[in-house]
Prior knowledge:
Elements: H1 8-17, H2 32-39, E1 50-51, E2 58-59, E3 70-71, E4 74-75, H3 79-88
Antiparallel strand pairs: 1-2, 3-4
This protein binds zinc ion.
Amino acid sequence: MTTGNRSLVTGFFEHNLGVQTIMALPKRRHSKTRQAKRRTHWKLTVPNIVECPRCHAPRLPHHVCTECGFYNGRLVIPKKERKGEKAER
Ligand SMILES: [Zn+2]
């Protein structure tokens, strides 16, 4: 009955059924190298930001400009809609 990290549900069943459940534990410690190797994939990616050709505001490529609502030289999101969405949120 002295398991360290027990959920409330597990504790409930232990209490009622008298069953002891112990979570799986690692047999051996992982070396610092192994830890570092795993963490080599922990990295931030810088978003690719392009300039809107119409209003020169920064925007994501292949996305509608949030400032002017244009995409590929065409008005996709009218100004009223954009302002209404902002007011609601
Ligand atoms: Zn724009």
